[in-house]
Amino acid sequence: MDFQLDDDQRALRDGMRDLLERRFPRTRLRTVVDGHGDTAPLDRALWRELGTAGFFALRLPEAAGGVGLGLPEAVLAMEEAGRTLLPGPLVATQLAAGLGAGNTVEGSAEVAAANAVEGAAEGAAVVTALDLGPGADRLVEHLASADAVLVLSGEDAEVLPAAALADPARPIRSVDPATPLHRVHPAFEAVAGTGAVGAAARLRREAALLTAAQQLGSASRTVRMAVDHATARTQFGRPIGAFQAVQHLCARMLVRAESARSVVYAAAVTEEARDIAAAKLLADEAAVHNARDCLQVHGGMGFTWEADVHLHLKRAWVRAGQWQTAAAAEEELAAGLLLTGETGL
Question: What is the required cofactor set for this protein (predicted)?
Fold first, then answer.
């Protein structure tokens, strides 16, 4: 199968990259991080601009006010967000904007409009998410900045006002300075709200894939950071990129990123649970290990607060624990192999 992007998809990717480079450059990222991003509110103006650009309404039917695209295009947008380490509950807000639409290109505009969280598609509302499923860690990101919470409980999805979690949620220290986290008390259970019956499994799969796309963007960015540094930094009268050990590090980083890209893009087309599990597993590995290798290429400089490499590693750690961990993805893949008898045993 040919997974090359078409002209419209390339235009979407390039347009989103231009928007984020203009509205969320490195200087803005450093302002968020150095200004205690774990407690600072989200940039609502940027959130609304993302809404105006169609970021959150990409998969809503045009009749419901959306762009009418599919999961592959949403993956491209999330990849660009991951490249710039854009903070905020991007995945949850996009899911909430199309809650109930299912495969939105063929989905009902009436169903999408009836279940969507008001203001999410336009970027006027910030929606975070809480998974109450078996084995979930009950962590919520950016709760203090959120207007609503998309709660996945059992087979259903409910939308609650963020204030409903004010009492059962407690802030915890986050490894990522730009991703504040709250942990919800184990006794908390979702109460009746608006939402979509039977949608939880689909939303979990889509959330895992969109998170994998963000990891892919970060993995690709650290490849570029490592190569740029290896080209500019000199040692013993020559660029460090001329040394074979550094070349091998950069080559392994590129292989990881491109391998993950193939699987993530394929999963966006098939939307199969096993493919999404493989995509999340490989994208998490690429993001975490590429950030570590990028640190090695940068040497002692990479471990300083002023360098951006540690920010990619910390965000990758946080994302790796969201929606589908490595253990959960491996269980999904193993179950699929046993079901089809492809173990080779």
Answer: FAD
Please give the pLDDT value at position 4.
84
**Is the same domain home to 142 and 207?**
no
**Average pLDDT of the residues of the chain:** 90
Show the CA angle centred on residue 110, arms to residues 118 and 106, nearest 5°.
Answer: 110
Distance in Å from the first CA to the final CA of the chain: 29
Are 190 and 158 in contact, with CB atoms under 8 Å apart?
A: yes
Task: Tell me the per-residue pLDDT of 174-216, one tens digit each, with 9 for 90 and over.
Answer: 999 999 999 999 888 866 555 555 789 999 999 999 999 999 9
Same domain for 207 and 305?
A: yes
Q: Which residues pair with 149 in a beta bridge?
A: 128, 160
Query: What letter does residue 260 receive in the DSSP assignment?
Result: H
Domain end residue (candidates: 179, 198, 217):
198
Q: What is the mean predicted confidence (pLDDT) over 57-86? A: 93
Q: Is residue 327 part of a domain?
A: yes
Provide the CA 200 distance to its chain's centre, in angstroms: 18
By the 10 Å C-beta count (0-12 exposed, 13-18 middle, 19+ buried), 54 is classed as: buried
Measured in degrees and rounded to the nearest 5, phi and psi for residue 234 equal -110, 150
CATH code of the domain covering residue 149? 1.10.540.10
- Decide if 283 contacts 20 (C-beta within 8 A): no
- Axis-axis angle for helices 273-298, 200-232 (nearest 10): 20
3-state secondary structure 136-157: CCCEEECHHHCCEEEEEECCEE
Pairwise CA distance, residues 136 & 316, whole Å:
18
Instruction: Fill in the DSSP letter of residue 185.
Output: -
- Report yes or no: 293 and 229 within 8 Å, Cβ to Cβ: no
**Domain coverage including residue 73:** 7-198
CA–CA distance, 82 with 94 (Å, rounded to integer): 15
Residues 158 and 34 in one domain: yes
How many CB atoms are located within 10 Å of the residue 166 CB? 11
